Amino acid sequence: MPIKTFDDVQALSEWYDNLVFRSITDDTLFIQDNREHRWYRYRWTRGKREVKFVEVYEGVLPLVTQVYP
Description:
The protein is mostly beta strands. It has one helix and six strands; from the N terminus they run E-H-E-E-E-E-E. Strands 1-5-4-3-2-6 form a six-stranded antiparallel sheet.
């Protein structure tokens, strides 16, 4: 089960020990959990105070760019 919130993108990356990607269409964040072999979708809350879990992402990823590290 994914963690629901993180303080920032660095904490998200460190928890999953993986790269963080951002969709170029809607600024949602994607990270792959290597233990579960799943992609998780996260989104910044208002004011970019924390990164919040949205869903387990199934299917083909949208066009993304690497944002961390």
